[in-house]
Amino acid sequence: MKRDIELVVISDVHLGTYGCKAKELLRYLNSIQPKILVLNGDIIDIWQFKKSYFPKPHLKVIKKILSLATKNTDVYYITGNHDEMFRKFTDFQLGKLKVCNKICLNIDQKKTWIFHGDVFDASVQHSKWIAKLGGKGYDLLIVINNVVNWFLDKMGKEKYSFSKKIKNNVKKAVKYIGDFELTASELAIDNHYDYVICGHIHQPQIREVINKKGSCTYLNSGDWIENLSALEYNEKEWKIFYYDEHKHLLKDDEVEEIQDMDNSELLKIVTNFS
């Protein structure tokens, strides 16, 4: 049985990169029936897109999203920095699928502001070549990490994350994450939002932020490269879904095929944006 969920937010999937966990994301999407699905940026990685590398599981994720949008799910595709090419299609709508740069929702009488978060990143805004170079380095780090973890798994040892180690121990990385969360929260409070939801920094989070002007709840959906996480809202409560904690409950159901669109046609569409 699929779980009925009022709202699901996922971000930073990075389809088209070696680090993307498309199979795991597909299993998750096949296990839920959301009323609203928010894709909060960096879903398809246009920066690092290679026509020679876009495996079937990556295409199946796109098909699944389109399948949800043809049924009873409102799908919002919010653009990020790695899929910024889609920004020229802002406000484009096809059925229940809408492309936008941000959305404001009213969730149980609470104002909710959702955007990717790259607007706070100076390297993205002013020196894109540095950001793109960093993206390639991160992708390479993930590939090396996957190889190391394969050996650790075979040896019966716990997996290790190079990226998390860096984020948790390098002062500049820790400060950047803290500044990002505080900036988003303070802007939300200034504009009287109850919830502010971001992606971009690959750091799942739900926390209350209070200052002299008021308070809000800051949330981040994490990513589908390392954390394999999503935000779920149901019965007036937010939760972070971690794939690794629930994978034993998920089935390998095949995604519903969309008629008249095979994998080669879908890949051509994606290629046109690269």
Secondary structure category: alpha/beta
CATH topology of the largest domain: Purple Acid Phosphatase, chain A, domain 2
User: What is the percent of helical residues?
Assistant: 25-40%
In total, how many beta strands? 12
Q: In the CATH hierarchy, what is the class of the largest domain?
A: Alpha Beta
Q: Could you give the order of strands across the largest sheet? A: 4-5-3-2-1-11-12
Please trace the helix and strand order, writing H or E for each element: EHEHEEEEEHHHHEEEEEHH
- Unreliable spans: 123-131
Rg, Cα atoms, Å: 18 Å
Write a brief structural summary:
GO terms for molecular function: metal ion binding; UDP-2,3-diacylglucosamine hydrolase activity. The protein is α/β, with parallel strands linked by helices and 274 residues long. It is built from 8 helices and 12 strands.
Describe the structure.
Strand 2, helix 2 (56-69) and strand 3 (74-78) form a beta-alpha-beta unit. This protein is globular. With 274 residues, the protein is an alpha/beta fold. It has a 7-stranded mixed β-sheet with strand order 4-5-3-2-1-11-12. Strands 6-7-8-10-9 form a 5-stranded mixed β-sheet, with helices on one face. 35% of the residues lie in helices and 26% in strands. It folds into 2 domains: 3-116 and 194-272, 4-Layer Sandwich (Purple Acid Phosphatase, chain A, domain 2); 121-161, no CATH class. Keywords: Cell inner membrane, Cell membrane, Manganese, Membrane, Metal-binding. Residues 7-204 form the Calcineurin-like phosphoesterase domain. One of its GO terms (molecular function) is metal ion binding. Pfam families: Metallophos.
